[in-house]
């Protein structure tokens, strides 16, 4: 029986080690743009990395020492079956004082750079240097509002390189309804955590409390992130893409995002615009759409086609098949998605095609 158990244990250990080893070999998008706090790309993440480089070796030293002593004690003083009780020891003042003072000194030593870094990173960058983005963590996507530039986007944030981006993580997101009434979405009242590992640390969203954080990228490229606080069924499908571009490209992007969407000329896309007005504007803003009622529960779609991903940045915007499946039944594509299904009795196959053509004009 004991042998059997040992065999199971050994197999579990081997399979576990193999799984870990294989996971490290994966060449996915993540290895191209790693979700990896150990390859920082900007002053904020680099500052955190410096702190980690101090704390980690100390933690390793403590771990090796403590685990080593445990191993020695377990092996050296194990029961050898001779039935004798070991020599009983009670209290050792000198040892007890030592093992209280040493950890206290280590912790105090680690606290100095840690607290210093916390204060440094919580300082807001100068107003005239920073880009400001208001972030709302929704179930299950991110809403980004470029307050000073006057537009919304979702899941994908574009930022200029070498510029601090000051994020206001809103604790009380409210929207003005069409009648001027304020609307608060119950779905916003859960914890989320904003985390783009290569650009900054994590900051939690706390309902009712405003939180702030800064991120900054040194190099152009796409930086991935994810919600890092369990927030419900599609927590893992709540991804972030930060695209860092040159100052000039950023300005062009802002100019484009700030424009309203143009109505498409006669044809299926124009038919799609009407279908959108009849079914979708209650939850999705499209600035420039004749029936637009402004920012609501769902992502702003004014420049939907300028994004690369949708639905928490998990699906390709260009994937027409996926978009079709999404509109037909969002919760089947993304568990817990808070967009209702639109079956063939609400939107016919032809109407769905027109709708998708319209969405693809929203550059
Ligand atoms: C009751 C509100 C509601 C209605 C009505 C609605 N949606 Fe949505 N929609 C949402 C929500 C909420 C999301 C975000 C889901 C997520 O990512 O978890 C969403 C996401 C989307 C997205 C992905 C956007 C992005 O950038 O991630 C598209 C495209 C979309 N909806 C299209 C439509 C179309 C087309 C219609 C009309 C046929 C429609 N929606 C009707 C609530 C709604
Ligand atoms: Cu979340």
Overall SS class: alpha+beta
- List each distinct ligand once: heme C, copper (II) ion
Into which percent range does the helicity of residues fall? 25-40%
- The low-confidence parts are none
What does this structure look like?
It is built from nine helices and 14 strands. The chain is an alpha+beta fold. It folds into two domains: about 180 residues, Cupredoxins -  blue copper proteins (Immunoglobulin-like); about 90 residues, Immunoglobulin-like (Sandwich). The strands form four sheets. It has a five-stranded mixed beta sheet. A hairpin with a 4-residue loop joins β2 and β3. α3 packs antiparallel against α4 and α6 crosses α9. The longest helix has about 35 residues. It is elongated, with a radius of gyration of 27 Å. It starts with a helix and ends with a helix. Bound molecules: heme C and copper (II) ion. The site of copper (II) ion has 6 residues, from loops.
List its salient traits.
9 helices; Immunoglobulin-like; 363 residues; 2 domains; five-stranded mixed beta sheet; alpha+beta; 14 strands; binds heme C; binds copper (II) ion
Provide a short characterization of the protein structure:
The protein has 363 residues and is of the alpha+beta class. The protein is built from 9 helices and 14 strands. The chain folds into 2 domains: 34-67 and 98-246, Cupredoxins -  blue copper proteins (Immunoglobulin-like); 268-359, Cupredoxins -  blue copper proteins (Immunoglobulin-like, Sandwich).
Q: Topology of this protein?
A:
Layout: H1 2-25, H2 29-32, H3 43-76, H4 93-121, E1 131-138, E2 141-146, E3 151-154, E4 156-160, E5 165-169, E6 175-176, E7 182-183, E8 192-195, E9 203-205, E10 211-215, E11 221-227, E12 239-245, H5 247-258, H6 268-279, E13 309-310, E14 315-316, H7 320-328, H8 330-333, H9 349-359
Helix pairs in contact: 3-4, 6-9
